[in-house]
Amino acid sequence: MGHTGHSEQSGDPLAAPQGVTVPTTHSSIPTDGHTSSSPSVSPTRTATASATAEHRSAPKVAAEAAAGQGAIPASSEKRTSPPTTAADAVAQRAAAHPGRHICYRAYVSEVGWEAPVCDGGVAGETGKNRPIEAVELSTAGTSGNEANAYMASSGWQGGGAWNWKGAANGQNLVIGNPGSGAAMRAFMTSVKSGTICANTYVSSNVGWQSTQCGSSGAKPDYLFCGSADKTAKLIEAVVFRV
């Protein structure tokens, strides 16, 4: 389904949004022709995170997860079997801890689908040169979410940067091409209410970038993560928090 939550301006459809500085490590949001100009929109939100990438050992959100916030609910909590999809995981987490949650899993090259993680857990594998081919997301308490992926071989999915997929709370949203061998280079995502933050571990000695956030009611209302330049910088791991 096409994305309708972000209006577009006349003129160059890929010029940088007003008030938004595109980071050098992100380059800029690429066009369908794999150039590195940024999309022009009439944004409804303000970017809430620094655009300067930082080479770190781990992102802040992942560090919080290591403190026990990003794991699937403990075995003492009622459940019949381990979750296998993001929707399974978010349903179990929301049942045990009502509120806002995001669960997700990565399809890793040469590995396949990994087990889902939630609320700041690391999906994917860092430093192993195994890029992510797809990500599956599911949310609770956000009124739903939307996303689009930029693939290294084919550019934006859906035929354009703003042709996003969407899903309601508790449903799976898959971006990328699992099992195709095509790596993901970047993505954009948003939630219908509240804030979503994400960070990516990028190959070619880039490492963890700076956390990016998008909030309902801000300008712009989405976040962009990954690398849009034409070098071999691919996403190997990702974290999300809402």
Protein described:
This protein is mainly beta. The chain is 9% helix and 31% strand. The protein is built from 2 helices and 17 strands. It has helices at 60-69, 86-96; strands at 7-8, 41-42, 101-108, 112-113, 117-118, 123-124, 132-140, 145-151, 155-156, 165-167, 173-176, 184-191, 195-202, 207-208, 212-215, 223-226, 235-241. Strands 3, 4, 5, 7 and 11 form a 5-stranded antiparallel sheet that branches. Strands 6, 13, 14, 15 and 17 form a 5-stranded antiparallel sheet that branches. Strands 8, 9, 10, 12 and 16 form a 5-stranded antiparallel sheet that branches. Mean pLDDT is 76; it is low at 7-28 and 32-79.
Helix content: under 10%
Q: What integer is the average pLDDT?
A: 76
Q: How far is it from the N-terminal to the C-terminal residue, by CA?
A: 23 Å
Order of helices and strands: EEHHEEEEEEEEEEEEEEE
List keywords for this structure.
242 residues, mainly beta, 5-stranded antiparallel beta sheet, 2 helices, globular
Topology:
Layout (H helix, E strand, L loop, with lengths): L6 E2 L32 E2 L17 H10 L16 H11 L4 E8 L3 E2 L3 E2 L4 E2 L7 E9 L4 E7 L3 E2 L8 E3 L5 E4 L7 E8 L3 E8 L4 E2 L3 E4 L7 E4 L8 E7 L1
What is the structure about, briefly put?
It contains 2 helices and 17 strands. With 242 residues, it is mainly beta.
